[in-house]
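Researcher: Structure for this, please.
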Amino acid sequence: MSNRPPLKVLVVDDSALYRKIVRDVLSGIEGVEVVGAANNGVMALERINQLRPDVVTLDVEMPQLDGHGVLKRLAGQQNAPKAIMVSAFTAQGAQSTNAALREGAFDFILKPATKSLEMSVQQLRRDLIPKIEACRGVAARPTSAVPTRAPLRAAPTGPAPMPVRRRIDVPSKVVAIGVSTGGPQALVSLLPKLPASFPCPILLVQHMPPMFTASLAEDLNRRCALNVSEGKDGQVVQRGDVIIAPGGKQMRVVKRDKEHVIQITDDAPERNCKPSVDYLFRSVAEAYGSAALGVVLTGMGDDGALGAGLLKAKGAPIITQDEATCVVYGMPRAVFEAGLSDEVAPLPMMPTVIGAYTRGGARV
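Model: Predicted structure, token format:
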């Protein structure tokens, strides 16, 4: 039996049915205590003040004050609870949820749209438990409403040797990025800082369901000098493109004559991920070899570690995000502890570090 205090969760939803379902699922998780519920954002803020929960499951659309309003009120507060958004599986829901993630929400789940209550409970349990466990994993770490503003710390020590910055003799010809929990904030911090003259294409996997990746790509495209889009089957990979794997599909790149072309497939999930970072990285290793650059950003789990190993075996360098600026230090940790990181960088430095590898020359 763990001596850790229970993870306190507040359930916020305007639907009495969903409040009950979410409470029932949470109550079945060992070490979790449901401390209360609220049916709108105004009541949620009052309960947060009174009950001091560690986590809030937060409906996006609510009367009086919606989920966005709650996040804005919590922004900048010390020890603000982590927010897991509960979103409708619609285009509007995707836009609202992506906005909430940019505003500092920890992660999100979809409201089940199944044929029975029992199936809805099962789906919610599958989706919610990993997010709760991820919250628990970082509960002891000082947080703010915007995790990317956390003070920087030295790269972690571990069983792997510390990465050594190396001379970059050949500029990278493609950047492959893998990211999950905390990704929308990280990408908004990183991609708009890359200039229109960025010398190579970027291929990207963000763990998200269908519609959500399209909304993410549209938002990033408005913010970036580069052309950001959701990947299309047969799309030719070109300089100036940022291509995001579609939710619910797998994306790979293949070399065809003198061109590199995107293929979108319905292949099986890998490590329960679809799209999968490993799936993309494996194809990038085959298509580009040592001319690729792998980047693994914030996210729970270890998707990307196998793919990073394949890139590394081809001679491609790997950059991982440091623990201090990750929302969840899972995916980068797996790569780092496997001894695959050539460089560990804080998120604010990522545009500079990636730029150096794509231009070639010595890192200092």
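Researcher: Any notable elements?
Model: The chain has two domains: 7-145, 167-362. Residues 167-362 form a domain with the Rossmann fold fold (CATH 3.40.50.180).
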